[in-house]
Design goal:
By secondary structure, the chain is of the alpha+beta class. The chain has a single domain, classed as Zincin-like, CATH 3.30.2010. It has five helices and three strands, in the order H-E-H-E-E-H-H-H. The chain has a three-stranded mixed sheet. Helix 3 crosses helix 4. The mean pLDDT is about 90.
Amino acid sequence: MEDLPQEFREKLENVEIFVEDYPDRETLADLGIRSRLDLLGLYVGTPITKRSVFQQTSLPDRIYLYRVPILRAAGGRHRIAETIREVFIHEVGHHFGFDDRQLEEMERRTE
């Protein structure tokens, strides 16, 4: 969270962050994902870009980080913090209205 620029942290109001070992079966089925190791994180909510000034206060948006899949994807202790950071920033990107294609393009440009 501290790695995010201040202007992004300020706009993360009403967002809950959860860490769970694995995604649940229903989530995997809804996303069409077969292995519970294939989902590292998930954003659930209405992106800022899709909100209306007429929209009533809603439940908090949620960012899920899945511990075991992240540890597996990291491939070793030396990459755990970096992998967590990448997954978290990816999910925050969804909160700000970016889709997977746009986020992947941005990630390629920063490598």
